[in-house]
Specification:
The protein has 740 residues and is an all-alpha fold. 71% of the residues lie in helices and 1% in strands. The chain is globular and about 85 Å long.
Length: 740
């Protein structure tokens, strides 16, 4: 008889990843402190080390037991799929126990809690990869869980805290705060008791007349039911605008300001973008440096400059015209400051849109006999609509969230952003502030929906990947000269305003004594210099994790398939779409007590910077990663390189420009942030932007101008240095490519 052959069954070797993560989690929970004393990040509660808590806390015993079981699971010889399912359940149990212990103890978290949370999430990620639930490796699966936890904790949870505080008063569900704010004249008042006219009736009549006219016009073209829809939309829109124009209050002021600033700044940005890509005049060369200046400085610096130039003792109003007027203190001054500050943002958005248009379409239109004006109206304008809508959305959100300019040149007129601040700082009413925050959030989402409706379900594809030898058609000469004249006027005004700030920093007393002096710069010592270096240090701390985290999220949503990918991308981008004022309220409400106590620390400022500026790193990362051929990463994987190695040696070097741009933006935005961090600063952790506001508020315009000038010069130096580094990297990359 033939002897049966027996094939030995291969046993799975120990899983080093599970053993390492389980061991680190076990050691961290046993040897580190679980609680700290108040707001001090490095003062730990005596007796809060895990080993000391084992006897008195069954939950702590369960946490350490779960971590030990993870080590055992990794060491035992089990099939990987079975081991992955066990690790998944153990990681979930460890996370649940850790959260339960923190919530039940009510003490601010210590380092052991951070180690336990990240460790058990890593164990869950390893389990997802080993069990085949996610078709990826342990590193990427863990990254998905970590990123999801960060987005949930530092973006979605603060927004939830705002929504909750608006309807929960003293622990009970109540609409008292909502009704109180909505009925307040400071929020919105349509019918003025001191006026003899009926503003509500006038607004309604204008809406009805508009609806009737639009309906008749559309019916004349036999549009049927579309006429009714157009009439309803037009009537409601005119009614709302008329009510806002005739009414009073913070809602009215903020909405009208956002509309005016959004329209004018976007129009200027579009004109400047056309000049940059279509003008034949040499003035286009000034667009680069002058468009960057308002971005690298806080927006309210232009408000300070308006006081110097057009205030009651302004150089133009009083010095040249002999007037003592306060016309620029109010909505007019705020609108001018915001338009000057945000037009460059619209320009940068629209420049890429205009530049990416296929010139062959313009050439075809010209071949068919179209004039340059006709090409501008029928080709360039329709293709630019998505970019224009995006620019308007961005500018309108920035206008709604702007806090500095309304404080400096608002003249006491209420705006939503300032009312949020006064509700917390002045009236100590978090519920009222939360209601104002919810209103701002609703307005932001409304602008987004209007943008989507305006673009519609149309395709705007002009970049096909096929080479084209066509050249972009220049602007009509009349438009070129007119637009260049507008741009030169804008340049003169910007230079004069920033020049007034620099001169004001070395002038004894603006408007009275223009003698040169260094006393304002000397007066910055020690407070001004301390807050400046604190701002630079915290901004640097936040820039690197913001860039890396944004790039990692961009890689995950473009290269990895997993459930909830769209939700993760939307949640990550939400912090950029939400006004900074709303996020500031959310951080105050979410991290002011209990286990997550972080207010009053430098850490909460760094976290606010990281998650506020992270979306730019996401978008730049996605754009760069989509240009990298997947075959490069597949080749790296075939050569047995893991995901961290592939990211470090293949993806990140090829996306170096995107990483650097995200790093620059994160640092610049952190240095100039004010609307979100105004709620988070303390005397021990003050920032340069809020210190400038404090100087101006207390009448020390000279010191405010000195600190603003220092901040501007520092940002220019940083931008130039990083630009030089970027060019050097690009040169090296090109050189290596040519040699290869």
């Amino acid at each position: 008889m033939a002897r049966a052959l027996t094939v030995p069954i291969a046993r799975a070797s120990p899983n080093i990843t599970l053993i390492v993560w389980g061991g680190l989690t076990l050691l961290g929970t046993l040897l580190l402190s679980w609680a700290r004393i108040g707001r001090d990040l490095f003062a730990f509660v005596p007796g809060s080390i895990g080993l000391q808590l084992l006897r008195e806390s069954p939950v702590m015993s369960g946490i350490t037991a779960v971590a030990a079981l993870v080590v055992l699971t990794g060491a035992l010889q089990r099939p990987e799929s079975q081991r992955g399912r066990i690790a998944l359940w153990l990681g979930a149990a460890g996370c649940a126990l850790s959260v339960f212990y923190l919530v039940s103890s009510g003490q601010p978290f210590g380092p052991a809690a951070i180690v336990a949370a990240l460790g058990f999430l890593a164990i869950m990620g390893t389990g997802l990869a080993l069990s085949g639930t996610l078709r990826t490796d342990a590193f990427l699966a863990t990254s998905i869980l970590w990123v999801g936890a960060f987005v949930l904790a530092f973006i979605l949870f603060p927004l939830w805290a705002v929504l909750k505080a608006s309807v929960v008063v003293k622990g009970q569900l109540s609409l008292a705060a909502v009704t109180s704010v909505l009925k307040s004249p400071a929020f919105f008042l349509l019918n003025n008791p001191a006026s003899s006219r009926n503003e509500a009736a006038i607004a309604a009549a204008l809406g009805l007349v508009t609806a009737a006219v639009v309906g008749i016009v559309w019916l004349a073209h036999r549009r049927g039911w579309r006429a009714l829809r157009a009439a309803a939309v037009a009537g409601v829109g005119i009614w709302v605008l008329a009510a806002l124009y005739l009414g009073f209050g913070a809602l009215r002021n903020s909405v009208l300001l956002a509309i005016v600033v959004g329209v004018v700044a976007t129009a200027l940005g579009f004109v400047f973008a056309l000049l940059s890509e279509r003008s034949n005049l040499r003035t286009r060369s000034l667009l680069g440096p002058l468009s960057i200046l308002p971005i690298i400085t806080p927006p309210f610096v232009l408000g300070l400059a308006l006081i110097y130039m057009f205030g009651r003792r302004g150089f133009v109003t009083n010095g040249l015209l002999g007037l003592s007027t306060g016309i620029f203190f109010g909505p007019l001054g705020v609108a001018i400051a915001q338009i000057l500050a945000y037009a460059p943002i619209a320009y940068l958005v629209l420049q890429g849109v205009v530049q990416a248009m296929d010139a062959a379409m313009e050439e075809a239109a010209e071949t068919l006999g179209a004039s340059r004006w006709h090409i501008l109206r029928t080709v360039i304008w329709p293709l630019a609509r998505p970019g224009i809508a995006n620019a308007f959305l961005l500018v309108a959100i920035e206008s709604l969230a702007d806090f500095g300019n309304p404080i400096i040149v608002g003249g006491g007129v209420p705006f939503l952003a300032t009312e949020v601040f006064f509700a917390i700082i002045g009236r100590f009413n978090p519920s009222e502030a939360a209601v104002y925050g919810v209103v701002l959030l609703a307005m932001t989402l409304s602008i987004f929906l209007v943008q989507r409706y305006w673009i519609g379900r149309r395709f705007y594809v002009t970049v096909t990947g096929k080479p084209s030898g066509a050249q972009h058609r220049p602007l009509p000469p009349a438009l070129d000269y007119a637009a260049s004249g507008v741009f030169l006027a804008w340049v003169v005004l910007i230079v004069a305003l920033y020049g007034s700030v620099f001169i004001g920093s070395i002038t004894k007393l603006w408007g009275f004594d223009y003698a040169l002096t260094l006393q304002h710069i000397k007066a910055l010592s020690p407070t001004g210099w301390q807050v400046f270096w604190t701002t630079a240090r915290l901004s640097a701390y936040a820039a690197i994790p913001s860039t890396i985290l944004g790039f990692l999220i961009g890689y995950l949503v473009t290269r990895v398939e997993f459930p909830g990918k769209s939700a993760l991308e939307f949640g990550s981008m939400l912090s950029f779409a939400v006004p900074g004022t709303v996020m500031g309220i959310g951080y105050i409400l979410a991290f002011n007590q209990g286990a997550l106590l972080l207010t009053g620390t430098s850490l909460i400022l760094v976290l606010a910077f990281v998650f506020r500026n992270m979306p730019v790193g996401i978008r730049s990362g996605i754009a760069a990663i989509l240009q990298i051929d997947r075959s490069l990463e597949e080749a790296s994987t075939m050569l047995r390189a893991n995901s961290p190695t592939t990211l470090r040696r293949i993806v990140m070097p090829l996306a170096r420009a995107a990483l650097l741009s995200g790093l620059v933006f994160a640092f610049v935005r952190a240095m100039t942030a004010v609307s979100q961090v105004i709620f988070l600063i303390t005397p021990a952790h003050n920032l340069a932007t809020t210190q400038i506001l404090s100087y101006v508020e207390y009448g020390s315009l000279g010191r405010g101008a000195a600190l603003a000038s220092l901040l501007t010069l520092f940002m220019i130096a940083v931008i130039l240095a990083l630009y030089a580094v970027n060019r050097r990297f690009d040169t090296r990359t090109v050189g290596k490519t040519l040699m290869t």
